[in-house]
Each structure stands twice: as structure tokens, then as C-alpha cells.
Amino acid sequence: MKEKIVFCWSGGKDSALALNRILRGGQHEVVSMLTTCNEHFQRVSMHGVRLELLERQAQSIGLPLEKVFVSQRSSNEEYQQKMSACLSAHKARGVTACAFGDIFLEDLKRWREENLDRIGMHGVFPIWKVDSRNLLREFFSLGFGSVVCCVNDA
Questions:
Q1: Domain spans, the chain
Q2: pLDDT exceeds 80 at position 89
Q3: Is residue 72 within 8 Å of residue 106, measured between CB atoms?
Q4: Which of 10, 20, 41, 67 is a Cys-bridge partner for 15, taking CB atoms 3.0 to 4.6 Å apart?
Q5: In angstroms, what CA-CA distances link 102 with 53, 58, 137?
Q6: H helices of 10-150, where?
Q7: Mean pLDDT of 125-147
Q8: Res. 47: pLDDT tops 70
Q9: In this predicted structure, which of 23-37, 113-127, 137-151 has the lowest mean pLDDT?
Q10: Topology of domain 3-141, per CATH?
Q11: Who's near 52: CB < 8 A, 6+ residues apart?
Q12: pLDDT recorded at residue 48
């Protein structure tokens, strides 16, 4: 039986490649793509992508999209409380893990794992520590493309 997981979807290229690996791997059943969104700006918190694009991504992938809204100046406490509530509900339905498209940031990975451990879940990191040149080759060989849709002018 496949392990039920939630995929934390940012809408970016790393998420796309990580999700593709999960879906091709055959070991997991992705029950939902979960994205944290800024309530005030109505955009993805991580990348500032418009929600309309996020919804179109999920529709084209064919997986349910779940949005967790945080306030304009969300604190770590608010984020953790809302994500814990959401993931605890998934856990009650048999979900045991959360997957991410993280590659390099050790402190972020550790933080994610500690928060998941508190609610009795674990993390799945399909592209963790893979050489970025190899990821780029894989990304394009699979037919993916990338479009800049949000820029921080600072």
C-alpha cells in the first residue's frame, strides 16, 4: 500500500520537479497539494505567485489544491499553528508525511522535520542535496519550462 502524503507546493520549479519525482516513484499517494497563501495580497506566500496561476497549476496536474491563508505580516507562530491544524486533520485521515521541494537549506529542512515530528508525521525530500546542474538537466529533459511570473524589484 502506498504511503499517503501531502505535497507542500510553492508553485515553483523545484516543487514541480520534486512532485514529478514523487508521482513517478510510485511509493506515495499524494492526497493534496498544500500551499501557504498571503491573505492580504491573495498570492502564494513563498513566491508571490497569483492564486489564479496556482489554481491553474493544480488543475493541470490533476491533484486537489488546499490553501492555508496567513495574515499579511504572518509570524512563525501563526504559520505553525495553521499548518499544524491543517496537517493534523490530514493525519486523522491516514496521511503520514509531507513532501517538499527543498534542495540545500539545512536549517529549513531541520525546522520542517521538527514541526512535523511534533504532530507525528515525517518529511519526504525527493530532490534534497541533488546537484543543481543535474536537476536542471532533468527538469528540461522531462519537458518542463519555466516562466518568470513574479519579480522582487528590491
A1: 3-141
A2: yes
A3: no
A4: 10
A5: 21, 19, 17
A6: 13-25, 51-61, 76-92, 106-118, 132-141
A7: 94
A8: no
A9: 137-151
A10: Rossmann fold (3.40.50)
A11: none
A12: 67
Q: Give me the amino acid identity at 119.
A: I
Among 109, 129, 149, 136, CA closest to 12: 149
Distance in angstroms (rounded) separating the CA atoms of residues 134 and 53:
27
Separation between Cα atoms, residue 139 and residue 145, nearest integer Å: 8
Positive or negative: CA dihedral 9, 53, 27, 90? positive
pLDDT, one tens digit per residue, over 9-18 is: 988 899 999 9
Which SS3 state, helix, strand or coil, does residue 67 take? strand
Separation in Å, CA 96 to CA 28, 33, 35, 42, 52: 10, 14, 18, 29, 29
**Integer angstrom CA distances of residue 106 from 52, 59, 102, 111:** 31, 32, 9, 9
Q: In this structure, what C-alpha cell is assigned to residue 76?
A: 512563525
Q: Which uninterrupted H or E stretch holds 3? A: strand 3-8
Please tell me what DSSP assigns to residue 98: E
CB 99 within 8 A of CB 5: yes
Would you state the pLDDT for residue 74? Answer: 78
Is the Cβ–Cβ distance between 70 and 46 less than 8 Å?
A: no
